[in-house]
Fold each of these.
Amino acid sequence: MSSEILFQAKRNELVTLLQKKGIYDAALLKALATVPRHLFFTDSSLQQFAYEDKAYPIDAKQTISQPYTVALQTQLLELKPAEKVLEIGTGSGYQAAILRAMGARVHTIERQKKLFFKTKDLLQSLGISVDTLLGDGFKGFQPFAPYDKIIITAAAPYIPRTLLDQLKVGGIMVAPLGEDKTQVLMQIKKLSETEFEQRDFGLCSFVPMLSGIE
Ligand code: SAH
């Protein structure tokens, strides 16, 4: 069996598992079945594990999130086609690729230069058209604001007011909140310029959101 066929079979199994865990968004399931997660692994010896439902180390002491976490965060965004999404924490680029595969217009920010350039090149070589930005996610990215949806993929010590300001009224932000090893996954709906509704969706574990560029 060629490795591509094998990877596709493993991807389908992963999608079935994620469905059992409560992922039902049809466009998301299609994206998960399509995006080649193994290509987002910098350590090729780990590629064989790419369709396990686990987080793995990538460059610069960062991780590629667990597929279930990516799926749950994405589902909580309640994406509609062609929405404008801001992602904080590009990392491997896998989450951005999933959002793009669902038809979103994606702007993604990474604070670590080395990882930023590597992932930018990877996304480009895979023909995944997302806007990659080197910067500090605490500041968001005003030139393209407001966003329909904002997803933070690093543990936020607090919800940055600047990011809530860059969210459209009616928009949704999904973020892991907390400074401990595990955080609470929050979904925040912006009801008006001053009113927000928040719900939590259990524990998750992300590397910390840090300020400044490195
Ligand atoms: N979404 C990623 C997983 C991200 S891991 C993926 O799909 O692989 C978290 C990433 O957030 C790391 O790469 C880390 O460097 C980055 N990060 C942490 N704080 C940040 C900040 N303030 N602004 C932008 N990126 C940040």
Amino acid sequence: MKNTVTLTDNRNGKSYEFPILDGTLGPSVIDISNLYKDTNMFTFDRGYTSTAMCRSEITFIDGAKGELKYRGYDIDWLAKNKIFLDVIHLLLHKKLPNQVELSEFRTRLKMRSFINEKMMSLFSAFPDRAHPMAVLQACVANLSAYYKRDMNFDDPVEYMELAERLVAKMPTLAAFYHRYTMGYPFIYPDLDRGFTENFLYMMRSFPHSHVNISPIEVKALDTVLMLHADHEQNASTTTVRTVGSTHSHPYSCVSAGIGALWGHAHGGANEGVIKQLEEIGSVDNVDKYIKKAKDKNDPFRLMGFGHRVYKNYDPRAKVLKSLRDELIDEIGIDSNLIKIANKIEKIVSEDDYFISRNLYPNVDFNSGLILKALKIPTAMFAVMFVIGRVPGWMAQWMELKEQDTIKIVRPRQLYVGPSSQNKDENLEKSNIEFSSSKDR
Ligand code: SDX
């Protein structure tokens, strides 16, 4: 049996054969690289719903079963047995670290968690009310000015260093901007604290004073970050790969990824969930909003529900829901918002509109409640998504670099515009001013 598919053009009876490529898991793909050359036609696939853009060994999602694996490890197992630092090492270095490797990795990231002091003036270029994602996008692009001149990012050793530097600095950039907007003194990373704890330390501490950070809070944030670490070719990762395909600087690729993640349909949804729950305000109002979500003429959508790939419960949402319930007593999650969230989830699970469209809670539905309980400002929720996702973005960028021939991303289109208009004699010839200033 030939591992091919045959396409027949019924307009002229011509047939074309295309190879089927099998992966280790998930759907096979039809390799249509020669489709345009053979048929003089393109495919049309809005939002690339049915299109695989690359080969990857990093993350696998089974949307039907609601499963997620980082380099073959189930997310549930990682969340129970490992910390975010293990997962960062797994994504960047392709293996879970042993104790020695983890200790050396932790030290390298700590030593790289500081930012060049010249960058501090960048914060004052922003108005106080600037959205943190706008600032973070600019800061990451700015980093390319510091680590471009002497870095050869075609050398795997050097681009791994770039990757570790960016992972290490992201929490510091995020915390520093928060301190700047609040008018607080900057708190530098504390080399005696772990990766995740250090972020809460930089956000909460004040000079010469004790800071209260409980182990359960560190575990909660660590789990949230781990669950966001990578997720196949989502919109922001596709953006990082697209910019990477032009051989741009990795930090400009990540800066573009931050811009993509900011949108409320993507990484901005966790902020949208909290704003929506607060707008609903009471369980008595839930039915009104459910009705809006189902109304075809109303652009309103339930934030934190639905997913392009998961047509089952997002496994990350499951982990976060049990973590949320574990935290309720420990760190006091807003019980009114929990009641509203629980009522929404119950209605959605029983209503045919949502069931027929496979709309389940996604990662953002509970992450916002946990981040709010950790006293992270709502405007910084997407920033937390960035801190979690940077290891995935850099792993995907390195995988692109390791693939022998980087093909620049350049999709085609179905042109539906005017075929020709310059024959229209009625159009006056524009009297373009080419005159130089001395003629005037
Ligand atoms: C993330 O891709 C990733 O992996 C992303 C992510 C990651 O880790 O990188 O998982 C992170 O972005 C999670 C998603 C966060 N976004 C939200 O929670 C925003 C709300 N959700 C939606 O906007 C929507 O569900 C998307 C964007 C997530 C998915 O959109 P799709 O796959 O393009 O689906 P669609 O818009 O074609 O919707 C299919 C149907 C439509 O109804 P019909 O036209 O069939 O009648 O479902 C409806 C939609 O109107 N629908 C919703 C809905 N989501 C889809 N109706 C109400 N509320 C919703 N949330």
